[in-house]
Amino acid sequence: MKDYKYSFEKLIVWQKAREFVVFVYKIVASFPKEERYGLIDQIRRAAISVVANIAEGSSRTSKKDKAHFTQMAYSSLIEILSHFYIAYDLNYINDELFTEVKDKIYDISNLLNALNNFHSPKLINLSPITYHLSPITYHLSPITHHPFSQSPQSPQSPQSPQSPSLPSHPSLFLNS
Prior knowledge:
The protein is 53% helix and 0% strand. It is mainly alpha-helical. Helix 2 (12-28) runs antiparallel to helix 5 and helix 3 (39-58) packs antiparallel against helix 4 (63-89). It is elongated.
């Protein structure tokens, strides 16, 4: 066998994701047998999807395609995190193992973000997002219009105080 390496084999993110697949397979092997066709299968498929999308993206010729597959890999990685939250809630894994999984996912997500920025710096940032809720008290009244519409269809009732106005676009709820 020749010593030739394909481009994806040279990527640190692919190497780390490949190690993560083995790590994940070892963890889910200890899950209850009734999860074989449920959580175990979902986690394994998502883990394999991460490395497969990185590899497939590396073979694409356009930066847009490369970025698309990097984003798909990131989405699968976040899916794994969500599944491990469920595993943790069901006591299939302990605090220490859950933290280790999250740390590995965080590291891989940062590498995916760097790869994505290399391919298309103007596209979406894949770094983990923190949502902050501001301490606003909303007075509830029946909604007779969509909160993001330009003009309400019915006036406020005199019995309820005026609700604070919502931002004009849903993305304004995010704090970057």
